[in-house]
Amino acid sequence: MQINIRIGAGAVLAAAVLWWAWPAMKTHFAPGRQVTTEAASSREPVVIPTHGGILVIARIKGYETFTRSDAEPVKLFSLIPIPLGTTVSEVRTAALYQYQIKLAEKWPIDCTPARCIVRTGPVELATPVAIYPEETSRKTQSGWGRFDKADNLKALEKELGTLLERRGNDPRNRDVGLRDGRETVREFVATWLKKETGRSRDILVLFPGEAQSAGAAAAGT
Questions:
Q1: Domain presence at residue 127
Q2: Which domain of life is it from (predicted)?
Q3: Which of 43, 72, 86, 115 stands the most exposed, by the fewest C-beta atoms within 10 Å?
């Protein structure tokens, strides 16, 4: 007995398509297969050539007063202290506190298309601290039984350099310098980027030891 089975043209075409597509379908629908898509920010290696040197980031004018007192008694026969009053000397001056950063010959910064993070070197106070002679006054007065007002003033003036350096590193002055200096660095980098790339970006300046959140808060962003 002969059995004839007719397969229509449509069925043949469907079978051919299934045979051709089966490897791809098998891979796509394989059980337990996971597809992971990752997106990463595009970071550009950016290096600013500085040729070294010093970048002055802030100059702060501070008004300071320094005093030196001497009330050491004279000892009679090296035993009995006799008070002779107090000698007091004073220097009032206007000081110029300059804050600066030593630049490496190549200054790398971390950039994405939207923002650049700039990490600076240590911020240093320029020494010796300069003063404004025209805004400096001195006065000194001996104690009632003393005759050392000139020596006391001279001793104070010898200490002036150290005292000014200490005041320049005091938060009262340094914090103002860092605030203004952050903007100076931002403008420096922004100008360079605009010139070299033709693009403007948000710039975050971080001083040593600062996290991004602290730097952003200090910058007001």
A1: yes
A2: Bacteria
A3: 43
